[in-house]
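Hi W.,

Here's what went into the run:
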Amino acid sequence: MDARSKFLEALGADAVRATDDGRPVVAPATEEQAIEVVRLASEHGLRARLCGNRTLLDPSTPSDFFLSSARLTGVTDYEPGDGTFTAHCGTPWSELREVTRGGGHHLSPDVGTERATLGGVLGAARIGRDRQRYGPTRDQVLGMRVLLADGTVAKSGGQLVKNVTGYDLHKLYTGSRGSLCFFLQASLRLWPLPAERRVLERAFPEFEPALEAAVALGRLPLRLETLALRRAEGGWALTLALAGGESVLRHEEAILRDTLDGLEAVPDADVALAGLRACHEPARTHAWIACLPSQVSGLAARLREQVTLVHPTISTLLVEADSRAELEPSLNASLAIDGPRPTARVFPCGPTVARPDAPGAAWMERLRADLDPASLFAESAS
Amino acid sequence: MDSALIAALREVVGKAGIVEGVSATIPYESDGLAMIQRRPDLVLLPRDTAEVSACMRLLSKAGIPVVARGAGTGLAGGATPVEGGVVVGTARMRDVLEVRAEDRYARVQAGVVNVDLTRACAKHGLYYAPDPSSQAACTIGGNVANNSGGPHCFRHGSTNRHVLGLVIVAADGEIIDLSGPSTDPEGYDLVSLFCGSEGTFGITTEVTVQLTPVPEVIETGLALFSGLSPACDSVSDIIARGLEPSAIEILDRLTIEAVEQSIFAAGYPVDVEAVLLVEAEGNEVEVSSTMAAIREILESRGATSIRTARDAAERRQLWAGRKGAFGAMGRIAPDLYVADAVVPRTKLRELVERCIEICRERDLRLANVFHAGDGNLHPNICYDRRDADEVKRVLEAGELILRTCVEAGGSLTGEHGVGLEKRDAMDFLFSECDLATMTRVRRVWDPDARLNPGKLIPVRACLETRTRPLSEPGA
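Here's what came out:
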């Protein structure tokens, strides 16, 4: 009996689909079914590639089947007065955004792909257009409930904005790209939904003056949601997203205009924000390279042709190419820059989480091997 | 302890780096959880990462348990020594290694005192945001071990959010260089995992931290209430309205009295039942609109007076009272049991009231001072450790408070850590599978279980028998 038949027999037709390359996607609808899938995989030596809706997954990664959380959906606990929620990890991010917006909250990271799931966003530690104000994805995660390769269901953290009880294993899992455990549920913190948002833009024909202007704006005492440079027709677009009450926005806009001439308010902020979200999720192979603020200019100069987006204040660059091989020279160039080594996270997610020479790579492998000794979910961390 | 081993360790750290003998090691018997005291065989005070590594290699070979210690200000027994073990302290590792204002980070040795880091970067208009109440004494390494908080973590987040890198010495002496600095680690986020591991994964020797620009405008308000409950309700309202001050703290009457009788006197009126300290920061308009909205809420909840600190000096004084509150409690009773539960912010009032009830039922004096904005309660029970019956009632009340908070959707600790104090309460919150998974991860870092043994995760003997705390005065 092949893998597909085994899962069909155990879970029924609703839970199993075929992909183009013949590997089945198994999507349990309950935790018990997920445990059964892992048990079967372990019993028959089948390697699982863990995923949500496979929006950021490298299809060439070897596995016998995909284990998807896409049917584990729904918000289990949303407490608007506390600004926290818990949901099953297959819940679409767009749905979570709508539900929490209804309760007066902003969900970060502000990523736009309609099909992305909660588990997928956390597994990939996605970068949203709003990171500058709300921090990285790992800071949003308050707790998780996961399924380990041996069938153990274990939680860490909770649904509280402040909590240091036990190890923060959910921080280890965030960004682990499906190599450690299958995400069942996660609890996240939320942010007050701004009363209003404004988007300002200015075009620059050259990168360096655009970066200089962006750095100057980034030093102002403002809580911007976005300050980004995007590659645009004829050069670069400097885009700022402001969020807050009317009086605060008026004040902040005046400060920005005093600092930089030529800023134009975008008439439809929602459309502009959707565009910003979209350029954070390129369809092509891409990498987010994080460095020090003082390294941004030098790094951009080395990678110029492939750089499509820069966040100067969080000193992160997005590089794109048509294939991993085309991206590789940029990744190597980023490592050769003077000073502390930048980090690079490549998408779609391949078979490993880090390069073998990444700091702590040996410890990552020890952790992976301990949580998944039979390498059911991944062959190696690096 | 074997004299040859002691000699070898002395060779590594020098005469200044070794503390031995009964009288000399007494100060290391406990941390802030003075209820439990144990004398270490030896205390080592290495000077840098290389010395820590060399010591750990020798101790690993000899199979000696190791407890890491910063300033010993922890309140949960995380730095309580292990009998037959060695304490490795960071008291001589106090160098600020690098301040890079342009890139807004600093690299420091683990023994640097929290407030000294802020002093070191003040000339650049920057500061280190996490501000535990013990910040005048506690160390950055200790903050990492406990993922420490503080009043302003309401806006800025706990220690983990500010750590960009670490240098760690593993149980066998291996130096793990994760110094970064990195805001976006490649692969697993080992630094975030390490934060809050309470000395059970390794010893932090260097920390790279993010620095925060000093806010353009800071406004500190003081609201007075004739009851603790309306003060709690006003905090729930502030959260529900989506307002974003930088800190919201509450002190109750007994705390106010203690503070005002102490050197930390802040000018809080002693005839009110609660004071609420609230601070907003940012640009001028942001601060004024936030404070106006908060004032509206405080008035609607019956604050009898609301005033704003006139200048920086008065603001410092108001905060000195809050941060000195634990120390000031010494005027009420010789000992203080500091609980650290966290509760959903929608349930502040009911749980604070329940804590009061629990202590009243046991004839215990309770002083409340807490990070209300984060739902982080600090019910402080005043007692005298020489009174065995009182100690018993304190422990009982402490356990019941934790259990009540957990049952209401809360947690055991918001910033002090689990340590020894709350180790056996981990069962309230976590299943056997949860704890077993944590233990698996712990064993990856420390396969021989020598690092801070007996802390954080409940100890299981054969047949999974639950053990009791190793030392219970009066029991």
